[in-house]
Amino acid sequence: MAVLPILKIGDPRLREVSRAVEPAQLPDLQGFIDDLIETMHAANGAGLAAPQVGVPLRICAVHVQQNPRYPYKPDYPLTVFVNPELTVVGDEQASVFEGCLSVPDLRGRVQRHMRVGVRALDRHGNPFEINAQGLIAGTFQHEFDHLDGLLFVDRVTDPGTFCTWATFEQFHKAAFVEEALAINRRYA
After folding, report:
1. Which residue among 45, 159, 163, 169 sits deepest, i.e. has the most Cβ atoms within 10 Å of its Cβ?
2. Domain 12-186 belongs to what architecture?
3. pTM, whole model, 2 decimals?
């Protein structure tokens, strides 16, 4: 396995719409999927999409395990999504601070749906469906946006919420952690 370089905002490859993966391609993509997971773990990401490492395919991984970047996010098992399709369930939304490995040292508030359904293939081509709620539903939306060439900065409705990690820690973290923990309780 290898840690791959993560593309940064401004790289035009982050703005491309990714291609669907044919199930017959998956045996040849297993090494890449392992590298994607290794890269996500090395960067302490909650998720990572293939376009973030320069591969324009509809593949992403999500894994939250006592993540130091996002200590308020509930744990979620390692899941690989191939060709994910997301459906919003209900109207509930929340404004949450997001960051991104492709947008270093920047955070901002994004409105995310709090309940979603996902249909996808796993890394071996087996179809699966899951329902997600709360902060993990937002994580899925964030990662799947990458597959369509979108970054969280495109979803920030109030540019006044942009802040660096240091200013987030100093001025916003305590209040947001309380908000995030309330979301966790509501959607437990």
Report:
1. 45
2. Alpha-Beta Complex (3.90)
3. 0.97
